[in-house]
Amino acid sequence: MSKSNNVYKEAYNRALRLVEETRRLPSEPELGALLGVSRTTVRAILARMEETGLILWNKRDKTVLRAPQHRDFFPDEETDTLSQIIERNFMRRLLAGGAEAGMQINELEMAREIGVGTTSLREFLIRFSRFGLIEKRRNSHWVLKGFTRAFALELTEIREMFELRSAAAFCRLPPGNPAWAELDGLEVEHRELEAAIAERFTAFSELDERFHRLVHRASHNRFIVDFYDVIAMIFHYHYQWNKVGERQRNTVALSEHLAYIAALKSRDPARVEAACRKHLESARQTLLASIPDCGQAEADNSAK
Amino acid sequence: MSKSNNVYKEAYNRALRLVEETRRLPSEPELGALLGVSRTTVRAILARMEETGLILWNKRDKTVLRAPQHRDFFPDEETDTLSQIIERNFMRRLLAGGAEAGMQINELEMAREIGVGTTSLREFLIRFSRFGLIEKRRNSHWVLKGFTRAFALELTEIREMFELRSAAAFCRLPPGNPAWAELDGLEVEHRELEAAIAERFTAFSELDERFHRLVHRASHNRFIVDFYDVIAMIFHYHYQWNKVGERQRNTVALSEHLAYIAALKSRDPARVEAACRKHLESARQTLLASIPDCGQAEADNSAK
DNA sequence: AAATTGTTTTTTCACGATAAAAGACATTAC
DNA sequence: GTAATGTCTTTTATCGTGAAAAAACAATTT
């Protein structure tokens, strides 16, 4: 099957939004920059838009003829990257299904089950291995380490080290640094969400990620910044399968964020540390509370 | 060409060492365990040994007929893993050649130059990306970030955080923990090397790695333990192309290690921290001294 | 002349295929 | 009856291939 054209389809859907808003589309290179794809893909999109009667395309002239209907869009399933498909499948097995530690992963079988080639699955597993949940035996299978209490503790330990350091670095940023403006923006978004917490309390996790990434970036350390990928991945999937008490959790986290932001703006290192510690502590508790295998931790940890 | 039989060749060479030392070889499963390969490979090895007249093989009986000659061994080039070949090639370009930051990596071209398939190279790059030296543009090329002063500073920053924490954890290990015995063993090896520093001063880096890995393991944190891979990789290649002042460096490091070991054995946290800090500081200086682009650091760091 | 469009070349992504290596099962030897 | 050997099956490592997407180059247009 070689390669799916999801890049084209996904960009096409986004291009439809542009069609909704304008009478005539900009030049090909401009569209490419706007959609984040190459001109080759832009031209494929324009060609189809002409075919379906959405636009009239003649060289520089790209006039919108009609508003896009619902059926003009490609279905969501077709716009996903292969690695996104694999990732979702894999995480579902890992978190939802009964994936015990020590279980081994069969590339061929798993690729067949998900319906992808072995190469793609292999590449996913290699990329995924940095999250510390799987390990490769040379010339042999992968071993699942399991989403255990020990894992959560190790993850949060690093997170706390990194975030405390990043927060301290944030305080030291000169006043002119754009990060301060970003922080102000995030504060506003927090207040807006606080006011509307009843309706859109699920929007929090996206805001949460942006806030923590901003703090981590202040460290100016690629290893710290990159490590947030691990945290984001875990929290993302974790919350997707664990909705109990979500609203309560988010309300608490939101107010902790606001205190944390206020502390950062005060530039008082002691206050920042306290606010950061408090928030991380409750994040840790939330994560731990959701892991079934209690008592397992000591065993895992002392097994060297 | 599908797959090279380097596993077989490498295991064969190691099996020759056993032939040198024994009159008759053990059972197939035992040999497999000894060489770390499957019985399939063991049997292939035995088959060849019989063919070349090294042994007489009849079911359980595997009698050694003659001592292996030099020409019985497979040449070293043939025993390397593909990923080792790729790694060496890549690191040579990165450290020795003029690999400026921002330069882009072409999978196809590089694969051709090294003489491997694109899949293998891709997988290597994905694995390598966690070292923070390259970055992928989606649906496009990889970008080289360069082995810059900024990189070295970011790397050592994390290293120091992790090692200080691990060393502190080491102090708290109960007296019965096998790590203490391992530490004693390493101390002996250090003393032996100290006595013979004149002859085998290049053997230090291997000892260095084992020592630091032992310390890191005390953290009981997979992210800390895994991070040492990054450090080991950098130091390994770095020293391979930078032999100036090696002996002096190693002599200093050796005595610092001994002080560090003594501190750990004293279990005095303050003393451990001091010894650890001192050693890490000189390791950092050594690394920084070897990077050509001075003054670059500020520019890199403040570029957000 | 600079930017845009038209055309061609290259590169990435993903697959199936194949030999090496591992693993499973059946048989024999002690 | 346990542990070895003999045989067969499955899985991994690697490549070549082909379509999607990017990038480079050439020809227009304003």
Automatic annotation (TrEMBL), chains A, B:
Transmembrane segments: none
HTH gntR-type domain boundaries: 1-68
GO molecular function: DNA binding; DNA-binding transcription factor activity
Keyword list, A-Z: DNA-binding, Transcription, Transcription regulation
Coiled coil: none
Secretion signal span: none
Pfam families: FCD, GntR
Domain of life: Bacteria
Listed name of the protein: GntR family transcriptional regulator
Organism, as annotated: Manganibacter manganicus
